[in-house]
Known about the structure:
38% of the residues lie in helices and 26% in strands. It has 618 residues and is an alpha+beta fold. It has five domains: 17-190, 2-Layer Sandwich (Nucleotidyltransferase, domain 5), CATH 3.30.420; 191-238 and 317-383, 2-Layer Sandwich (Nucleotidyltransferase, domain 5), CATH 3.30.420.40; 241-308, Alpha-Beta Complex (Actin, Chain A, domain 4), CATH 3.90.640.10; 400-522, Sandwich (Substrate Binding Domain Of DNAk, Chain A, domain 1); 526-611, Substrate Binding Domain Of Dnak, Chain:A, Domain 2. The strands form eight sheets. Strands 3, 4, 5, 6, 13 and 14 form a six-stranded mixed β-sheet that branches. Strands 20-15-16-17-21-24 form a six-stranded mixed β-sheet, with helices on both faces. A four-stranded antiparallel β-sheet has the order 23-22-26-27. A hairpin with a 5-residue loop joins strand 4 and strand 5 (40-42). Helix 7 (241-255) runs antiparallel to helix 10 (303-327), helix 10 runs parallel beside helix 11 and helix 14 runs antiparallel to helix 15 (560-577). The longest helix has 32 residues, at 582-613.
Amino acid sequence: MAKISINLATGSFQKEEIIVGIDLGTTNSLVAFINPDKNPQVINDSGKGVLVPSVVYFNNQNEAVVGNEAKEFLTTDPSNTIFSVKRLLGRSYKDVADHAATFSYKIIDDDTDALVKIQAGNRFYTPIELSAEILKELKARAEHALKTPVNRAVITVPAYFNDSQRQATRDAGKLAGLDVMRIVNEPTAASLAYGIGLDPSQQKTIAVYDLGGGTFDVSILQIQNGIFEVLATNGNTYLGGDDFDRAILEYWIAQNKLEVTALAQNNVLMQTLRLQAEAAKKALSSQNLYNEKVGEIWCTLDRQTFEQLIAAKVEETITACKNALKDADLSANDIDEVILVGGSTRTPYVKQAVEHFFGKKPQDNINPDEVVALGAAIQADVLAGNRSDILLLDVTPLSLGIETMGGLMDVIIARNSKVPTKAGRQYTTSVDGQVNMKISVYQGERDLVKENRKLAEFDLKGIPAMPAGLPKVDINFLLNADGILTVQAIELRSGVKQEIEITPSYGLSDDTVEKMLLDSIEHAQSDVQQRMLIEARSEGEQLQYTAERFIEKHAEHLTEAEIAETKTHIEALKTALGSQDKDTILKKADELNEFTRPFAERVMDAAISTAMKGKKIE
Ligand code: ADP
Ligand code: MG
C-alpha cells in the first residue's frame, strides 16, 4: 500500500512514503533508505556521522540525550548513562544476572522472572523505552535529512533473537512512533545488501560473520527461491571489539607499569586510555604502528603485538564458526559466500582468520558497520512493493496448540514449523446447549497441557444453543514472520468469532526452551499412557452423558426393560471411569454402545418421522 505524502519542507508531493531500514545495534545504530537513484544509502544528518552510538543519557530533568553526546557521560555520570540496552531487550533479570556486573547503571532485580527495568535518576525505564529513545533519534535524523516524515521502518535483529526479543524490538519501534513493517534478521539484511537472494532463481549457502562492539555471531543461511532460511547460528554475546580495546589497555598498563588500583579510581584517565586504545585499534586496521602519548603515558602499539593480544579471542570466533557449520550439517566447502559484518571485521587479522577458515575470500566491499542497515533499506523497498517479493523464513522452537478434553494438548502448529505459517482444526461442543467455549492456548511438547506453558485463554461467547457435537468451531493459528501468533475461533453455523494476538515466547529464554524439549523426551512414555487414559475417559464420559440424555428424552419410545438395562450398563461404565484402567473403561463403553445401538436407531427413525410431519419440504 503506497501512501501519498506531502513533503512539508518543499511542499512537493512525494509519491511513495519512504520506509527506512534501521540497524538497532548494541554499540551503534544507524538508518538507511533507498535514494532516488534506487540505491541504498546510509543517512548522515548534517554531518553528525552515520553511526549513532546506542547510548542514552538522562539529565537531571530526566530528558534523554542520545548518541555521541550521551557517550561523553559514560565517565562523568555512569549511573545515568545507559549503553548496550539491546542486551536487555525482552529479557528477565534471571537472563542477564550473570553479566549484571558489566553494567554501570542499575538494573532492577526485585522480580527475577519479569522483564528487566533500569533505574536512571529517580525513574525506571524498560529496555523497550530506552531502545525507543534511540529509534526516535534515528527517526528524527532521517526526517531532518530527507525533509519528509518517516513513519515506517524495517528493523533488524540478530538471527538468534527469540520471539520475546523480537516483540520487544517491535514495541520499541511503535513507542518511537514507527510502524514496524518487519523485523528482519541481521545476516539476512547483510546478504541482501550484497544482492544475494534478490534473484529468485539463485540458490546459495552463505555464512555471515558478524563481530561488533560487544557481541559476536555467525549465521549459516540457505537462500533458495528468494527464501532465506537460517540453518544455524552460533556465537558469544559477550565477545567483540570492546575486548580488543581492553586487551590493548591492559597491555599499556603493563608497559607503562601503571598502578592499577590508583588507575581504577581515576575514571577520567581510564576512559581516556580506553578511547585511546580504540583509536589505536582502528588505526592499526590501516597502518602498522600507533604511537601517541596521554600525559606521561606512552600509548604505543604495533600491528604484530596487537594481533598477539587478540589472537585467542579471534580463535574463539572461529570455533563458533566450526560449531555453526556442524549444526547445519555442512563443511566449509559447502559455503558459497562469506560476508563480513560489524565494525570489528575491519581488523585485517580478523579478515584473514575468517578467510583461512572458510578457504575463500570474504565479501567486504560494503562498510561492515553499514551493511545491515543498507540491507534493511532494501528489505523496506521490497515491502513497499518496489521489488519482487522476498520471503524470510524462520522456525518456531516449540509446538503451539490448545487444550482439549481432559487437559490434553492438541498441537496445531508443530515445533520446527517454518514461519510464517497457518494451521487450523475443527472442534465442537461436548454438552447440549453449550453457548461458551473456553480456548486455552499452550506452548510445549508434553501431552498434558498442565506440563506446558500457558500463553493465553479466551472465551468464544454467543454460540447459539445446539445439541452437543453440532456446533462447528474452527480454531485457526496464524504465526507471522515475526513470530507473533494470532488465534482465531469462529463458530461456522452462527459466524460468532473471537480473536487474540500472542507472542509465544515473551520472556522465554533459550534455556527454558531446551529444558522443555528435554522434559518432553524424558516423559514421552508416561505421557503417552496418560494421554490414552484421558482419551478413554473422555470418550466414556461423553458416552455416559449421551446415554443418560437419551433415555431421559426418549423414554416414551423405550420399554421399561431397555431403560433398566441401559442404566445398569451406565453404572458399570461409571465405575470403570473411576478407575485408572483405560482398557476396562473402553470395554464398558463398548458394551453400553453395543447394547443401546439397536434401539437408538429405532428411536431416531421415530423421532425423525415425527419431526417431518410438521414440516413441508420445499
Ligand atoms: P554493533 O553491531 O555491536 O552495534 P558495530 O558493528 O558498529 O557494533 O561495531 C563496533 C565495533 O567496531 C567497535 O568495537 C569499534 O571499535 C569497532 N571498529 C570500528 N571501526 C573499526 C576499525 N577501523 N578497525 C577495527 N575495529 C573497528
Ligand atoms: Mg551490528
